[in-house]
Fold this protein.
Amino acid sequence: MSKLFVCPHCKHGMSTERWSDEGIHDFKTWDEQCPECEKVFEVVAMIDVRFELSKQYKETN
């Protein structure tokens, strides 16, 4: 399982699957609570949009 981000406090990895079905994202910042140590930290992430772009390409062609 690939990781999107890691808690800076306890190094617990969080799965990309948690965010993969929310549509197109490019650059996003949000606060996240680690399920392992329960501390809150800021996440800055670049979300992969290749699947959504290829889907749009198929719909227009």
Q: What stands out?
A: Residues 50-60 form the longest helix (11 residues). The beta strands are 3-6, 13-15, 27-33, 40-46.
